[in-house]
Each structure stands twice: as structure tokens, then as C-alpha cells.
Amino acid sequence: MKIYQAGPLFSEAEILWHRALTKKLTVAGYEVCWPGDLLTKEEIIAWGEDAPKQIMHRDRAAIDACDVVVALLDGAQG
Length: 78
Description:
The chain has helices at about 10-25, 40-45, 50-65; strands spanning about 1-5, 30-35, 70.
């Protein structure tokens, strides 16, 4: 089963939490797609003003390739 792991990636704490969850899910035998691994800062810079659109296209394609979405929704997102 392939999991798209969604949630905020704005702070170092959120990024570390997601990396830890990705590791746990992988060890449990799941294939994990995490948005933090889908693109690089260099790509975002190169896209310029088109970056938000390009990011959404890449994320959408990744979601479509997964079997399920698991999302962290805490704090203001919850």
C-alpha cells in the first residue's frame, strides 16, 4: 500500500515529525510519499511565480499515485 503523507511543512518541528512518521510507516512495510521529498528548493526558485501552480501539479500527481492519504491536522489546521 502506498501512503501519501500530508500535513504542514512550515517549521523545523513539523518537518522532523513528518520524517519520523515516514520512517515508522516505512519500517511497518508501507511505501510513503511525503511532499517534503517531492521537490527541491532549487526547483521552486527556478519556477519563480509559477511555483505554486507547479507544486500543486506535482502534489496532485503524487496523491493520484497513492492508495490512501494520511494527514496531520493539528493546531490551526484542525
